[in-house]
Amino acid sequence: MLNAIIADDEKLVRKGFISVIDWEKFGISLVGEAANAKEALILLQQHHVDLLITDITMPGMSGFDLIREARMLYPRLWSVVLTCHHEFDYVQEALRLGAVDYIVKTLLDVEEIDVVMKRITDRIALERQRFGVEVEHPGASETPSYTLALQAGTNGPTPADLRLSMFEPAKEAGPGLWIVPLPGVKSWSDVEELLLPLRHYPWCMAAMRDDEPMGTKKTGEQRESACVSSYLFFESRAGAAPLRLTPGDLSHWEASRVIGREGLTEWKERWLDSRWIFHEGEYGKLLQALESSLFTAGLFREWAAAHFAQWEGIFHAAEDHPEYIRRFGDAVRWSEVKEWVSIYRNEVRQRIQGKFAFSEGVVLSLLAAVKYVQANMGSDVNQNEVAKHVNMSRSYFSQCFKSFMPLSFGGFLRHTRLEKAKELLRAGELPVYRIAETVGFQDEKYFSRVFREHTGSLPSEYREREG
């Protein structure tokens, strides 16, 4: 039998809630009621209480503050919040504080309250099993338990931020991928019941039995984590039940991918050259390639960050950069990425068309010129050579390039070389003279002088500070 107390400052609401529930039916003994948090804390001192049911908005100490203080005093206390707000922020805060569930008072009827109370008592029973309390089946400990995989974005809470009483601490297994043991959870129906409150979070979820190998190729945990991330990225749906991983699922998934992680290098280059923004054929090819690959949300964030860094000031204003970073950080599913890319693509096209009176052909030629400079910066590349490569006259190319880019051709070439030099210096593998040669400076002293003029540091100083 669970001992419970209720805290709600509205007496009629509190009495009505008490009367509508058949407490004995759910194995609950109501040992007290309180009109505020202070009275609730007194009841907790006077009685052995297993379950605290509290309103959120009360005079003085709020329900959230009550849960915080009560859990510090009584770590094994379960809590449920009563609220009139069916909003994500309230649900999120309640779960973060360790509440096992929440009840929306305005949506309750007799049938609904039975469903909610069963869900609450079932969840408490699961946690009691986990800690070896009142386990009804002697052989249950031999039954396999489950492990949860969660894919989170870069904005909002991560699984590590939550302090849910029914979960083990989350461990990061890859970029945005978290693994959470679920000891004591013996069946798939228990998994679904336990994870029901987490559907409000913008995460991808899958669970697997601990005695069932995931079945990926045996090339290390890193590859397996990448495969799990890709599976979650493409297969999960917002607000849906967690995916169920069974033996062979991931090996079949990996085998069905036409393009592996190694093959994505080519497509990253095509993503960065940005022809897909202005050319429908390239856009279609890019989407089709990624849909048949082991692409992940983490790779998308990496690619998007590189794209923004490369085209800032051209495709979008510098002040828009933080908003774009926030938006792509929210994308954890392929459907969300496609929507985001489509919106971004339209925004860039409108910006370019509004800013420049260039045809699509000229824009594509200028993008090809940028790509050519980046690929050939180590040689004695010049404006005549690039104009010829993109089939434009030198004078017209110079005019268009200066309008399109925030720098002249010479300024852009120097900027590209220095940015590459910074990257190589941070890597810390090559000596300075080799880096100078790699990015197109034949004289190390001249390279050092130009580098200091633009960064305020010598290459060696930059490496020591940033490497």
From TrEMBL:
<dbReference type="InterPro" id="IPR009057">
    <property type="entry name" value="Homeodomain-like_sf"/>
</dbReference>
<dbReference type="InterPro" id="IPR020449">
    <property type="entry name" value="Tscrpt_reg_AraC-type_HTH"/>
</dbReference>
<feature type="domain" description="HTH araC/xylS-type">
    <location>
        <begin position="367"/>
        <end position="465"/>
    </location>
</feature>
<dbReference type="GO" id="GO:0005737">
    <property type="term" value="C:cytoplasm"/>
</dbReference>
<keyword id="KW-0963">Cytoplasm</keyword>
<keyword id="KW-0805">Transcription regulation</keyword>
<dbReference type="GO" id="GO:0000160">
    <property type="term" value="P:phosphorelay signal transduction system"/>
</dbReference>
<dbReference type="InterPro" id="IPR018060">
    <property type="entry name" value="HTH_AraC"/>
</dbReference>
<dbReference type="InterPro" id="IPR011006">
    <property type="entry name" value="CheY-like_superfamily"/>
</dbReference>
<protein>
    <submittedName>
        <fullName>AraC family transcriptional regulator</fullName>
    </submittedName>
</protein>
<dbReference type="InterPro" id="IPR001789">
    <property type="entry name" value="Sig_transdc_resp-reg_receiver"/>
</dbReference>
<dbReference type="Pfam" id="PF12833">
    <property type="entry name" value="HTH_18"/>
</dbReference>
<dbReference type="InterPro" id="IPR051552">
    <property type="entry name" value="HptR"/>
</dbReference>
<dbReference type="Pfam" id="PF00072">
    <property type="entry name" value="Response_reg"/>
</dbReference>
<feature type="modified residue" description="4-aspartylphosphate">
    <location>
        <position position="55"/>
    </location>
</feature>
<feature type="domain" description="Response regulatory">
    <location>
        <begin position="3"/>
        <end position="120"/>
    </location>
</feature>
<keyword id="KW-0804">Transcription</keyword>
<keyword id="KW-0597">Phosphoprotein</keyword>
<dbReference type="GO" id="GO:0043565">
    <property type="term" value="F:sequence-specific DNA binding"/>
</dbReference>
<dbReference type="GO" id="GO:0003700">
    <property type="term" value="F:DNA-binding transcription factor activity"/>
</dbReference>
<keyword id="KW-0238">DNA-binding</keyword>
<keyword id="KW-0902">Two-component regulatory system</keyword>
<dbReference type="InterPro" id="IPR018062">
    <property type="entry name" value="HTH_AraC-typ_CS"/>
</dbReference>
